[in-house]
From TrEMBL:
Domain of life: Eukaryota
Keywords: Membrane, Signal, Transmembrane, Transmembrane helix
Domain Elapor1/2 galactose binding: start-end pairs: 490-601
InterPro entries associated with the record: Elapor1-like_3rd (IPR056609), Elapor1/2 (IPR039181), Elapor1/2_GBD (IPR056608), Elapor1/2_MRH (IPR056607), Elapor1/2_TNFR-like (IPR056610), Growth_fac_rcpt_cys_sf (IPR009030)
SMART domains assigned: Ephrin_rec_like
UniProt-recorded name of the protein: Tyrosine-protein kinase ephrin type A/B receptor-like domain-containing protein
This protein's encoding gene: Cni-Y73F8A.5
Keyword Protein biosynthesis attributed: no
Limits of the Elapor1/2 mannose 6-phosphate receptor homology domain: 692-885
Elapor1/2 TNF receptor-like domain residues: 372-411
GO cellular component, one term: membrane
Comp. bias intervals (Acidic residues): 985-994
Amino acid sequence: MYWSNILLIFLITIIPQSAFQQQICTDQDYEFTYTNCDEHGERWRVAVPRDGVQCANLPTPKRGLNCSFSCEPGHYLDLDSQHCRPCNPGYFSLGGGIRYEEFVTLPSGFSVDNMDSTQDTQYSSQQSRMVECPKEAGWVVKDGELIYIPTPCVSRLSFSANLVRPGSVEFTYRMPRNNRALSMQVDIRNEQCQSYNDLARSMFQKYAKKEKDEEERNGDWRKRRIELKSGPNVISWIIQNNLGYQASNQPIHIDRIDVLGLAFTRQCTACPPGTSSIGASAECIPCNPGYFSSKGSAQCGRCPESQYSGFKSEKCIDRPPCRVSDYYPVREPCTNGSSRAVYKKVLPSICRDDLDSATKLPPPTPWKPCPKCNPGMEKNKLGVCEFCKKDYFSDGNSCARCPVDTVPNYGLQYQNWEVMPPKLTTRCEYISEGLSLLNFKLQPKSTSLLPDVSTTCNIGDAWLPSGDSLISAPSLELGIAFELILSIDEGFWNPLAPKPSKTMKVPVAQITVVFETSCADESCALYFIEDMSAGTKGARESFYHFLAAFNGTNSKRVWSHTVIKNTPARFMLAFLRSGVSSGEDRITDEARVYAINVTNVGHRGGQGGGASQCLTCPHTAGGETCVPCPAGNYMHQVTKLCVSCPVNTIVNASSSRVGVESCIPCGQGLTSNDGVSCTSQGKIQLKGMSNESFTYDFSPFVGRSWNISGVRVFSREGSAYFHFFTISLFPPNIKCQEQFDNFDMIGIMDQEKENVEGLACRMTALPTPTSNHSKNAYVTPLLMATRLDSISTSRKHGNASLTDEVLEYDSHDNTSRPLDVFFWFDPVPTISQACPNGNQLVVVGRCLPTKKQIEMRLPHSCPDGTCDGCLFVVIMETAEACPVCESNDYETINGECKNGKQTIHSIPKKHCVITGAASQTKEVACSVFSATQRAFLTILVISMIALSIAFICICRRNRRLEYKYTRLIESHTGELPAVETCGLDEDDEDEDEDRVIFSKGRRSQPTNSRTTLRDHRENDNAAFISLDSED
């Protein structure tokens, strides 16, 4: 590079003048420029003829300023003198940078890529189809703006810049409030296409509210600055739409992009139309309404009285004559019991009522009696409605004290709209990109003091009471949102609700809004939003959580929201007319609010709002009153005592908890003993498709949760994101909370980390710009289930049904289909109009007797968990989802005898598992006899024992019979039968002491064989007598 510059200088100065057709040139015939920088950062200033003119008197080359030199903002570099000069009025300069804020076409150096985010084919059983990205979506230049229109594709806006010194890129952007479905990342890459991960991390750390000068805010607008290194840089703004999450139809706006660190600025840039500037300015100031300016103006001119202009206008427009639609009625406050309506001009007031063809301001309506107040209120001495005092209630007329043993039910019940009720405020807010105060504040290096320009949306009240409803104000202002704010500073308290626990969330309040909208097309929207920063000490910014959205025309309908926290809250109702995103508002669009009802307003023992009724207090066994019934109990209508819900029923948390009808039955296959939650404990009986009965045991699933990762979606840069599911079949609940550092995400990082709690939820995992490529940011939690509704063997439940394709039955016939049991959960309301019945989850328990471990997965046909965005399906494959075998559902098989041991196996039937002791494999000692032989020997032994016992019994019986027979004979003859043989043999000695004779009577007890028998003559009944006593 250095030698090429020397060669150029040599050719200009050394080549003979005669080689050219030369002429004497003036300073208008040539211009100065710099050569390319060498490796030492040096360059030369040379003169180059204009339009091919050949000059004989060109100035000699001169060493130029260092390549890293640049002027201060508001100045430009004059190459003639190589000194910085201030910009003229009507012009501006960044010094050493360039600004992009007028987008007629995509500026030079920018490019847009819209990439299909089709799911990876390896996760799908079907061939992936490329989705054609819409041409009018993603990053586009439309109506003079650089905007992102939501698209299912990944859209990347890139800009290439060669920095001569370290600099920065600074951009002002606006994310839509409902931006949870969108994530924007800024990626910086060098000439080797390497991402500045460490630099990006450092940049995002600065946004953690540590350095205020790195971040400026005004409403929804944000300004970010990212440091850049010298050399080639590619800056990319990448936006991806999280699949399955309802995205806002509002675009992302980029107001302007400043790139600093470029080569010197040779001339200042003219201010755009509708702006002006003084000398040496780095900014152009927009013109206020009623003023105008052309391009390059030093100041804004005032419009004539017969004309008007909007903010940042290039020209003025004639004021039209007033019409009937240019006036609207407003109810005056009640005075002395009467009220009337007066008419006002629609703001901003641009019509003329002094023309002959103009409609004049209508007169006030006649006075009429004031209607009664809203429930919970009464009129004071001035006729103004105010809330009843503590322990009093009202139906809208006069307040009365609550009876004994009752408690007032404080709340807000707005039905009459004569005036704006308490706790409600209105405002309008610009959503157009051109109205940000960020554009007009002093730059750190600016040498001029620029006054702040007020861009307040001044249309008066954004919502107007009209007697029977609250109406969005008619306005000719364009690009605005009509906002109605409900502030509950006291928080919520339900005096009769049980105290919540970690495992049970008790609703404490209910918000209900009755509304309708009338719109020209579907682009209008009515949003219900919760400001999560309410009640946070020191919070200066709002963190919005979208609750619901309704597009297009809606006939009179009701929207409700359950509050589960006692803390203060702030809710917003925002109405956006058709065409608002492009600044072409349909001024005839209108929204009406007919009623707002908020229950249980106030803190413990304190009052919030007014009471329209008094609730009867339950009585406890100890005699206490106004003590909430325990969880799972309801109040008896007659005795006022707390009674437990019947078995297998639970208390409806949103009911009054009065009467047994407050208890609702558990679903099929579920039981409850506490009246709080339905679950499955132990074995349950379920009917199969053929009406056969199966026994299941789901107790191993209680208290467990599982994590599932969905299919990965790859962008062209190689980064991937996926959905992450967390599921629990039975209580307790699980909690899904966003996990990311403040430097991870743009747009989402400005908001509080959102969390949901229930039985199942889903989060989106996004890669983060850190050196640790395995780290993911988990954002946009989506609640999928709060309560298990039923356990059944039916694939249909309510309005939901599962197809053969989702259940993967296509490859099975009716006889080989797996045995499935379905865990159906209650639908969860969603803001998506594509799912009118809400999101619903079903877990398919698939019986696989050989799979001992539980495997949770997503269906092959729906690799991201859902095929329609509403019904989510998870397949759980395990042996624990099989029916439990009964005693006749399995058989026992003995194994071979090895080492003196024999194994006994229990073999179940198909789709059946054995539990308990029967499921254990047994080992017993081996025997030399077979089972038949052992049985025969056993029978033989038992028979012999039985015969022996019988023989003994018969012998004993014979002896008794013989004795009885002898006695019988004696009793008939009186004599003993004759002796057939002698008691002594011939060889025996006849011993006196051993001789006996028989006699009538009983036999006496012998004393000894050697003892002589006593004389028993006195006893004729003696059985034996001595022979010596015969005489």
